């Protein structure tokens, strides 16, 4: 993939929420003095060792863009979508003693910008204990999203899995527009199939059914529109697609 680009930024101009648990006066100091390196990556396969460099302890905070984190076990693949607000540590070594091992790969779907939380940042962050709690919240949010994917995999109807997946993505990265709730997400149907534990042809059929019922439609490449109310229980969808 193309070489990375980097620049220095004031982190909390992009992520002011991280200072929500910090005293107001201390937050003002943190805002002014916290400068980190931001790394930009183009679309394509993402090789973590090439972008980490030296001295990264806490990880990278995604400022914009979309990554795929893929794990393969015994011929099956699990996929995690990672986007703005997520904290990642992509260089972490595999456990050599693990009984069940797999292969990890990363892909940049939309050009990403990553804030590098290096050792200098970690030293500064030690002054503001509430900041670490907010960073841990970002990791916990990823775990919650993965738990949701596991729960969705147990829903028998594929249309239900897809609809709830997109409402979850809308909570994270959607916007309210005149047409409805819009999620900008440039991913393939094969990736959607991995996210909802299905086959790609079945996903294509299920998306057509949701479009016919006016619940979810792709109005342009990478633009998904949700209509109606958020389903509080398994929605009454006419199709019985289950794979």
Outline the structure in words.
This protein has 243 residues and is of the alpha+beta class. It has 2 domains: 5-151, Jelly Rolls (Sandwich); 157-226, Orthogonal Bundle (Arc Repressor Mutant, subunit A). It has helices at residues 11-14, 24-33, 49-52, 119-125, 129-153, 158-173, 189-195, 200-212; strands at residues 5-10, 35-41, 44-46, 56-73, 76-82, 87-88, 103-118, 175-177, 180-184, 216-220, 223-226. The strands form 2 sheets. Strands 1, 2, 3, 4, 5, 6 and 7 form a 7-stranded antiparallel sheet that branches. The two termini are 35 Å apart.
Précis, in short:
The chain has eight helices and eleven strands. By secondary structure, the protein is of the alpha+beta class. Strands 1, 2, 3, 4, 5, 6 and 7 form a seven-stranded antiparallel β-sheet that branches. Strands 8-9-11-10 form a four-stranded antiparallel β-sheet.
Number of domains: 2
Helix content: 25-40%
- How can the largest sheet be summarized? 7 strands, antiparallel
Give the N-terminus to C-terminus distance in angstroms. Answer: 35 Å
CATH superfamily of the largest domain: Jelly Rolls
Q: In what range is the share of β-strand residues? A: 25-35%
Number-wise, the strands total 11
Q: What tags apply to this protein structure?
A:
2 domains, Arc Repressor Mutant, subunit A, 243 residues, four-stranded antiparallel beta sheet, seven-stranded antiparallel beta sheet
